[in-house]
Amino acid sequence: MKKTLMFSALAAATLTGNALAQNAPVRDNGFSYTYGQLGYDRWDYDNGLDVDALTAEGAFALDEHVFLRGGVSFYDGDYNRSRWDDDVDGHRMYIGAGMHTPLNRGLDLELMGDVIYDDNDFDDEMGYALRAGLRHRTLDMVELSGGVVYEDIYDDQFGVYGQGLLNITPAVDVGARITLADDVDTFGVFGRYNF
């Protein structure tokens, strides 16, 4: 009888401890917010402009919740309209900041804001973008993130975004991303190095 009671008490303590550990506040999910990456993106605009862009981006964690981010894209595009075709080349730069906080084990809330400068053959403009979303460690080697985005440059755009990361090594990831907005859809692939 004593052995049964001791075993029951030990099992209850173990289960209670595991439940408390799972519900305990999460301080850090171990996501990397300090990295550099290179990628290729395709921007498809509703007005007939199709753009190929090469992009270099990076982020730097200032502390456990705040990070800086920035990037530059060099692009080449073609207008395919019924009456005429034309070519457009340009570059786009952005700099911004973000914050993240754990909501649960393996799940972060992310908020980001960027100032954007775009310069091409026809025009140049300064604008901004705001993002709010979630980042989730779905499997040991897979992270998924997604949310909503609002961008105001040339025209305002509201949409949704998604991204997947495959952790090849602790330092190297490969990923794919998509944004579906009012007047433009973007698709991209990239390689990332985590510092």
UniProtKB/TrEMBL annotation:
* Keywords of the record: Signal
The region annotated as signal peptide is: 1-21
The keyword Signal appears for this protein: yes
Per the record, the domain of life is Bacteria
Q: What is this protein called?
A: Outer membrane protein beta-barrel domain-containing protein
Organism for this UniProt entry: Alloalcanivorax balearicus MACL04
